[in-house]
Amino acid sequence: MAHIIVTGGAGFIGSHTVVELQQAGETVTVLDNFCNSNPEVLGRIAEITGTKPALAEIDLCDREKVFAFFADAKADAVIHFAGLKAVGESCKIPLRYYSNNLTGTLNLLEAMAAAGCKKLVFSSSATVYGDRNPVPFTEGMPTAATNPYGWTKLMIEQMLMDTAAADPSWSLVALRYFNPIGAHPSGLIGESPNGIPNNLVPYIAKVAIGELDHLNVFGDDYDTPDGTCIRDYIHVVDLAKGHLCALRYADTLAGFKEVNLGTGHGSSVMEVLHAYEKACGRELPYVIAPRRDGDIPRMYAQTDRAKELLHWEAESDLLTMCRDSWNFTKKNV
Fold first, then answer.
1. Number of domains composing the chain
2. pLDDT tens across 224-259, in order?
3. CATH number of the structural domain spanning residue 37
4. One of 97, 129, 149, 249 is an active-site residue; which one?
5. Residues near 49 by Cβ (< 8 Å), separated by ≥ 6?
6. Does 149 participate in catalysis according to the annotation?
């Protein structure tokens, strides 16, 4: 049994990962400042797993508290989710994103090093592939970013690469994932963003429960079968299991490795909408709106490296993802 620190462990992906870790028998401490999550999630994790994870309510930008925590924690590994994550917001307040995401990660890595904990799985993103690579995205492609949020992910990956190059006793895995959706089948935890959602499925969910009038479909004239953008949607539970597999892989890794987590194929905006309609049992209103700047027609992963190194692949289909999302939504109105 290992002691795993999960930064941002009360968030959407973090909470599902904590569930998988606890069900695998690991001891978990959630490190979170709750700037974009709710402490109630920890109680819901306890309902699912029978164990409430320990909590360290700390902001990673508070260097003194981070160092003090790791000095006493006796941590075996860290899974690092904590960070600001809204693409649009990052363009409006870029300095806050750079300050929060980069400073927090620097403090984390330095505190881990001081405590002798050198195993980390990082929540990276497919945004590091930029907008010029052909699909499917493979780990060896050139990297770039189109917004400050994406640049923070890329800069943190560079931190990890440089750290591993300087000291090969580190074991560092960056998981580049695509579009996580769905919720735990229990309906106890899921995605519950504040205000108007930035992402497609939470927006559709709010249309389905009547909180929003309609879905805006941004462009229907892309070079895709139905004219709408295609993305690689992955069930959040599959994604959480991928983090557990990455943690196991890190036991054998000396250095740094980047790995895609996706399904390996894409679904269009309209396909997602129609799957959600099946899940909730009714047609949902939508309006075709102008294209958004920066959207690319297709984005999906090649997943061979995840299969080879992590012995992991996604299992759930799109309808299952939408059904689980709807189950969570209707139970938590």
1. 1
2. 999 999 999 999 999 999 999 999 999 999 999 999
3. 3.40.50.720
4. 149
5. 19, 22, 23
6. yes
